Amino acid sequence: MEISFSLALLFGVILFFLIRGGTMKWGPAVVAMLFGFTLASTGASDPIEDFLNSVTDSVAEVDDSITDDSSDGQ
Question: Which of 11, 33, 52, 73 is least enclosed by beta carbons within 10 angstroms?
Fold first, then answer.
């Protein structure tokens, strides 16, 4: 079974819980979001996107190998 979701949604949910839990205040959260938007318009966006894609691909491969190993034993 494959579950996919947006990393932006995941980070948004994490940010929501950090703010709600009092770990992060609204001011730094807004600064972090604005930094992200600004960073996305620079030349650093391609390497960051490549890194995130490689991480998600690696996680998918590990998940596939775990799923394949567990189904072999049954």
Answer: 73
Q: Which amino acid is at 28?
A: P
The encoded tokens of residue 29 equal 């959260």
Alpha-carbon gap, residue 8 to 37, rounded angstroms = 12
CA 26 to chain centre: 21
Q: What is the dihedral of CA 57, 63, 65, 69, to 10 degrees?
A: -170
Report residue 28 as tokens: 């730094």
User: 66 with 56: CB under 8 angstroms?
Assistant: no
Give the residue from 54, 19, 52, 50 showing the smallest Cα distance to 33.
Answer: 19
Q: How confident is the model at residue 15 (pLDDT cuts 50, 70, 90)?
A: confident
- Taking the complete model, does pTM exceed 0.70, yes or no? no
